[in-house]
Design goal:
It is found in: Cell membrane. By secondary structure, this protein is mainly α. It contains 14 helices and no strands. The longest helix is centred in the N-terminal third of the chain and has 34 residues, at 61-94. It starts with 8 loop residues before the first helix and ends in a 6-residue tail after the last helix.
Length: 287
């Protein structure tokens, strides 16, 4: 009998204590240097001149406009992405059809295409000299340098998040419950509302949180298609860049701190959901 068989299986797979300590220290150090230190610096600079300077910076008309625009885009993008993500995940997980692999690849496309390229593509399509520019001008419709263009850019970069969270869950659940409901006489909509949706509600919420975080922080695609019109098409990330380039560091860092706070709130909600519903969310990690 081999000497290896005399050892407990854990002895083969478990790292030695010094190695675990070294790896843990390395990860904590990198986290502190790459994440916590920059975040602390942002808040320190934002409050360098006191809370009143921070409140004054986020209360200017430009700042208020950027905050409203960012929240509006997120509020519009989330339900649209949720509806399309649900439909895409439902089609991929529950049905077999030609082009299924192509559809999955298209869902992942925003992960591989630069947001700047996506924004430029929208400008070339909907701009005044674009393919649809003449038709839009004829009907007095404005996409580029307006809210619709910013929304389209945000939808593109955030599209995969909800669908990619739902597809593994729906695939693992299979079709048996839906088929049983239909056999008992349930309509398609009633079956979807009472069987499918409750089974994926936590994965859907998880995807919505990720989508919201990306929607609020998107810069590249939105910067290209917005035209950076101050007070009209400047979202919070764009305004931060503009303020910093104008050497208004306190105002720039104040807006950055506010945006970081919104992101941290999303992270807290995500962590709480993972903690309270770990068993229901575990399926989203299985690919």
């Amino acid at each position: 009998m081999s000497d290896l068989s005399l050892h407990h299986p854990a002895d083969v797979t478990t790292e030695a204590r010094p190695a675990r300590i070294a790896l843990t220290t390395l990860i904590l150090g990198l986290t502190a240097v790459l994440l916590l230190a920059p975040l602390a610096a942002v808040f320190a600079e934002a409050f360098r001149q006191g809370p009143m300077a921070f409140l004054a910076a986020i209360s200017t008309p430009d700042a208020q406009s950027a905050i409203r625009l960012t929240l509006t885009i997120s509020a519009l993008a989330l339900p649209l992405n949720a509806a399309v993500g649900l439909a895409a995940a439902w089609a991929i997980a529950k049905f077999d059809f030609r082009g299924k692999a192509v559809l999955i690849s298209l869902i992942d496309l925003p992960f591989s295409v630069s947001p700047v390229v996506a924004g430029l593509s929208l400008v070339l399509l909907f701009g005044s000299s674009g393919w649809l520019g003449a038709w839009l001008a004829l009907h007095d419709l404005r996409i580029v340098f307006a809210l619709p263009g910013l929304l389209l850019a945000t939808l593109f970069v955030t599209f995969p998040f909800i669908a990619r969270e739902l597809i593994p869950v729906m695939s693992e659940q299979g079709r048996s419950e839906e088929e049983a409901a239909l056999t008992l006489g349930a309509t398609g909509w009633y079956m979807f509302r009472t069987v499918t949706l409750p089974n994926v509600r936590w994965a859907l919420l998880y995807g919505v949180l990720l989508c919201n975080a990306r929607a609020m922080g998107e810069f590249g695609a939105v910067a290209v298609i917005s035209g950076k019109i101050r007070g009209q098409t400047t979202t919070m990330p764009i305004l931060i860049e503009m303020l910093y380039n104008e050497y208004l560091s306190v105002a720039a860092f104040s807006m950055a701190a506010l945006l970081a706070s919104l992101a941290l709130l999303t992270l807290v909600l995500k962590t709480l959901m993972e903690w309270r519903h770990a068993d229901l969310l575990s399926a989203t990690r299985r690919h």
